[in-house]
Amino acid sequence: MSDIRFASLLLAGAAALLPVMAQAQTDVSEPAVEDNKTFETVQQDDGAIIVTARRFVPSGAISASKTTVPLIETPQSVSVISRDQIDLLNFIDVQQAVRYTAGAVGENYGPDLRFDFLRQRGFIPTQYIDGLQAPVSSTIDNVGAELYGFEAIDILRGPASVLYGTTPPGGIYNLTSRRPSSRTDGEIQVKYGTDDYKQIAGTMTGALTNGISARITGLYRDRDSQTDYVTAKRTYIAPALTWDIGPDTKITGLGFYQHDKVRGDTNGFLPANGVLFDNPIGKVRRSINLGEPDYNFYRRKQWSAGYEFTHRFGSAVTFTQNASWRDYEEYQQVVYPTGLGANNRTVTRANFPSAENSKQFAIDNRFDAKFATGTIEHRLLAGFDYRNYRNDAAFAFGGATSIDLFNPVYSTTPIAPLALGAPYLDVRLKQSGLYAQDQIKMGGFILSLAGRQDWIERTSYAFPPITKLKDDKFTWRVGGTYVTEAGIAPYVSYATSFQPIVGAQVDGTLFKPTEGKQWEAGVKYDARGLGDDIKMFATAAVFRIEQQNVVTLDPRAGTGGIPATAQVQTGEVKSEGVELELVTRIRQQLSINASYTYTDAKVSKANEVDQRGARLPATPKHKATLFVDYTKATGPLAGLGLGGGVRYLSSSWGNQSVSNPLISPSTTLFDAAIHYDIPGWRFAINGSNIFDKRYAGRCTPQGCFFGQSRQVIGTVTKKF
């Protein structure tokens, strides 16, 4: 039977069962819907102050299985960074938010004010927003969406193609937007801190009328950077509206608009001599700006409009449809460093303006059905998704004057931006996916089976003649979990992934999609027997990923008239490791986030001898983190809390060269927090890298990027 027929029959079978399942009455119940209130402070009659963070410890993530199945029953390693965690640790963006999460590292390029640079199990993850892929550009796998607008970040580690299509083998991450609630709730928040960090933000929700609830979230930020003469401004607004059409039907409209302006930034690219290696003249200042502050400029506008529609057919079947229209455009002009002269102080530079635009419509339709065959319970998911994506990009490149590494003197006359050339990229991608999943429950044992068929069509308009490429691929996943009465759940799973690659071999043979496969085994624990005042979710996982069809240099390159850059698909990458993670909150006073990650990710096969055995970039072999926070509930200091954290990152490679690796040394960073809560108010001061450790986040052949320096931010929040 062909892959297409198999996937089609799965969905057809699900459709045939719908009338039966709609009449079925089962004992499989939905978990209670939790209101979206974050930290809530009340003072009891005896004077005790209780700070409730009911969502600090996760129990579910709909993006993990596209159902409400609890995390402990999901045979995959998943982390959820809740809004309560984000607020407690004062995370500004997604790449900060993974600081205490296993299997993921961020801030690879330091405190970038535009994007969130992440690695999961050695690979760059793809960003999703509300379950639909973000309109990422040709070079960056995220759109830098404002974190304040979201309730949670779901980190799905390992292949996710069976539910999401074209994804890397290391996984994806999904941002869940703040949703309306019929319960009146809100906050206004003001922040001020290091590097003249200024921010005002707020969110309000409540019922407009019977059956209709709304939320509005907004933010304005004006900040400098640890780099001299760099400023960044952001405006963000996100309206949302929920209409309970009837007892079984609901639609939620979601949208946001974000405008970013960054002035003066080169985004790093500092010479390795003086950052990573000794420079006989001295160390490079962490704040040095080797660009042109009056010329360098970055602008981005993006908006999204969409909805989530749900309808229940009785108690057994639910239909959900997610859709979004998204528009993304950015422009930058930047003079940046390109190399260091023999005198170890003269830096050559280049002028690089560029523009990129992306437009996308995406929709996901799925039926989620619960039924039983005898004593066996089924949770059947069947769906179809579609994405229509258009992306174009253009740039120009020219020389610029040199500059002194230790005493930069900037241009005193205006620099004219170069005119952009014709688009080097103008492509439309259409992706359709048909998927099905059955989670079969037999007592404490859950067997998960899933399969998906994808069809992809790419049309390139950049250079005549117009060309079309078509790919199709079947991916699948199988996993088993056993949940004990004590809340201990060992599991094992196998999953596959794929991603298309643009390009061809020298003979014109188009590149096939790169493919990934993963074995994973682990155990989860939810502490269900320890009492209601102890919330905990702990996971331990071991994994092995193999990626094939990786593009590598053609062994004939540079001979017999074959171009020196010719490539073939014979490369392979392997990543294996161990991940441990604990999130707990005890008696609404003590919170702990802890993790340990061991990742051995390297090139296992390549035609370039210098790449064989090279470690994957920006992936430390060891990452160990711990953050502990305690709030006093009684006495004269009731409501006062203190927190402290430590993060250890072992050395990591910045490039894939065995003979000349650029390796950033290991580093240990410390964080701290102090906060005071009284009913209606929260006051907090958060510090990261409080001892101001100087370290290189990453060094590549193009330059080095300093990690985030000490950052101290004070926050005042008024709760309604």
Defining traits:
five-stranded mixed β-sheet; 55% strand; 36 strands; 5 helices; mainly beta
Short description:
With 720 residues, the protein is mainly beta.
Describe this structure in words.
With 720 residues, this protein is mainly beta. Helix content is 6%, strand content 55%. The chain has a 22-stranded antiparallel beta barrel. A 5-stranded mixed sheet has the order 3-8-9-6-7. The longest helix is centred in the N-terminal third of the chain and has 21 residues, at 3-23. Mean pLDDT is 91; it is low at 1-34.
Largest sheet: 22 strands, antiparallel, barrel
Shape: globular
- Which class do the helix and strand fractions yield? mainly beta
Q: What would the average pLDDT be, to the nearest integer?
A: 91
Termini distance?
59 Å
Number of helices: 5
Number of strands: 36
Low-confidence stretches: 1-34
Strand-residue fraction? Answer: over 45%
Helix content: under 10%
Question: What does the radius of gyration come to?
Answer: 26 Å
Question: What does the secondary structure layout of this molecule look like, with pairings?
Answer:
Layout: H1 3-23, E1 40-43, E2 49-52, H2 62-65, E3 78-82, H3 83-89, H4 94-97, E4 104-106, E5 118-120, E6 126-129, E7 132-133, E8 150-157, H5 161-164, E9 171-177, E10 185-193, E11 197-209, E12 212-224, E13 231-246, E14 249-263, E15 297-313, E16 317-340, E17 346-373, E18 376-395, E19 398-404, E20 425-442, E21 445-460, E22 467-482, E23 488-499, E24 514-525, E25 534-553, E26 567-586, E27 590-605, E28 622-631, E29 640-649, E30 652-653, E31 663-664, E32 667-678, E33 681-688, E34 696-700, E35 703-706, E36 711-719
Parallel strand pairs: 6-9
Antiparallel strand pairs: 1-2, 3-8, 4-5, 6-7, 8-9, 10-11, 10-36, 11-12, 12-13, 13-14, 14-15, 15-16, 16-17, 17-18, 17-19, 18-20, 20-21, 21-22, 22-23, 23-24, 24-25, 25-26, 26-27, 27-28, 28-29, 29-32, 30-31, 32-33, 33-36, 34-35
